[in-house]
Amino acid sequence: xxxxxxxxxxxxxxxxxxxxxxxxxxxxxxxxxxxxxxxxxxxxxxxxxxxxxxxxxxxxxxxxxxxxxxxxxxxxxxxxxxxxxxxxxxxxxxxxxxxxxxxxxxxxxxxxxxxxxxxxxxxxxxxxxxxxxxxxxxxxxxxxxxxxxxxxxxxxxxxxxxxxxxxxxxxxxxxxxxxxxxxxxxxxxxxxxxxxxxxxxxxxxxxxxxxxxxxxxxxxxxxxxxxxxxxxxxxxxxxxxxxxxxxxxx
Length: 250
Prior knowledge:
By secondary structure, the protein is α+β, with helices and mostly antiparallel strands. It has twelve helices and nine strands. It has two domains: 6-133, Beta Polymerase, domain 2 (2-Layer Sandwich); 143-249, no CATH class. Helices cover 46% and strands 15% of the residues. A five-stranded mixed β-sheet has the order 1-2-5-4-3. Strands 6-7 form a two-stranded antiparallel sheet. A hairpin with a 5-residue loop joins strand 4 (76-78) and strand 5.
């Protein structure tokens, strides 16, 4: 079960009521917290993607009792008790197009949301079932989100650095698979390597250039600045990125 605060649970239940037949995908830190512990940061945000077209997403939400929409950020709403909810319309047509274009003219990438709708588990969050993407899919979405607005998405770097370290738990059986042992990998290299390999198995040719662009643009220095306490120097980030890419290219 996804742990939610009472305001988050109430907001999610209201959103489900507004879109009773649409798939709702939980994204952001709450979704990532279903896969790894999130001691590096907390969040009060509720981030959702809903399989509805652009013209059908805001009206049902602002029709909810006491709900309002942000004056400038079309994807941001506030419930009657003040819970902030970010909602992205993600119909099949929008996902195939690859972006949302807001009324301001700003574009937001939807590349990778096809993976979110395809590779997930269905989990209870309060009284509502939501789809929670796999950890490799969330890693991709965070890479793509950072590429959109690197100056404002530092939390995505923190989440990615944490995921590179924690994707495979210290005692997880996968650390001791025959293939991993045959590669003779160092303990700290296994998690980023397997994250890259698992993501590569989900991606298509459409997705790969975005991951490569992230690897070209995100520097070890940037990741280290937001990385876990165990990263005492950029060498740790460089090694994690190298192992991730090795898994990606395997």
